[in-house]
Amino acid sequence: MRDLRQLPKAHLHVHLECAVRWTTLAEIATANGVVLPDVWAAGGHVFELGFRQFADHGMLVRDCLRRPEDFTRIAREFCADETREGVGYVEVTFTAAAHGERLGSLEMPLEAVIRGLREGQAAHGIEWRLILDHSRRRSVQRAWRTLDLARGYHADGVIGMGMAGEESYPLAPFAEVLDAATAAGVHLIHHAGEFGGPDSIREALQVGHAERLGHGIRALEDSVLVAELRARGVPLEVCPSSNVALRASASLASHPLPRLLEAGLMVTLNTDVPATIGTNLTQEYTRMRETFGLDDRVLADLALAVSTHRSRRRGRRSVCARPSTAGGHSPQGDQGGSLSPGPAVAMAPRLPTKSHLVFIYVSDNQRMTLLDFRPANPGQLAAIGAAAWLIGSLIHVLAVLAPIGLVLLLIAGLAWLVRPRTRTTYWRGRPVELTDDSRTAAHRLYRALFRR
Ligand SMILES: [Zn+2]
Fold first, then answer.
1. pTM summary value
2. Cα of 35 to ligand 1 centre, how many Å?
């Protein structure tokens, strides 16, 4: 059996607040004077929660986080934890506006999280992006604020926005916000088809312009919808342990993941709320191997979760995932072979600007390399900037000088053509005929240009 921790993975659906280490949470709670329930004090998670209990639980966790250093710390530790599980690229979800409103500064929590993620990246090399979520139960005003944050912090790694929470709350009230997000090039990734049926998925696609679906497991109840998702290549972020804990699925054994794969849907494996339910991404892969007997090839295909996808709407690169069919697999249990599904180039999220496109390359030797158009260091940035400035200046100078030169040439040519010829004057010591009217403008111009 290969160690699945070594498998390079992308993690697309994980909530930062539900990935906080229990020890860290206890320390932060103490520092902020928050008393945690007994079950938490024991450091244990409650595996079977149910959605309502889970939501209350989430609110309590959120309440512990108050100071900038709390957010920075959990983000930094998150990077360390993800790296340890073999995650090379993560899109982490954060409820920025809710914290901002609660703490009286809309920007503070997000900025603190970004700081922590940057520190984590510097220490561990993990590549990250942020998605800001908004609960469907909350106000449209807050949704606007979430969008404002997503737009304002795009250059800092915020790539998208998603509607989360109870799917019985419709998306229609947020239609304007979601339209504006689409227009602004903000990725839209909504929770749908977890508790809601196929209609919630259709709503996420039509009203929400969803490019990817959080969960989406109930798509299987509608074969027409399955065909549509397959044809459009909409990726599903499947989170089996979360589904069991929140009772969206009766058990792991009856989880629809194998049927989603059989249906040819784009399936990615995720944790959703790892600390809350006591799992991590390696554990999810292991559970899938043990529960469904998935071989290395299928597991590697799941890991190769992010690939190219074009948004039909705008023809841009988009977030996507697919079970890869790339070759190079080796049979299960072959310790000598590679767990990787062979060379394949995968592309992470479509971003509004091309300069931030990230490629994930999973090679034969199980190493995932992130190739990013962004300069890697300040020196490179300065060199690119200087070159761009030089080329730009040259083009600018040429663009300004060319028309002026052309006009001067034209004037000179015209003056030459209308040069007076009937009166004798001297040009470089030789006699030249000038017209009677030597005071004409043309004559004066001629004299100015050609006579010494
Ligand atoms: Zn979720």
1. 0.69
2. 26
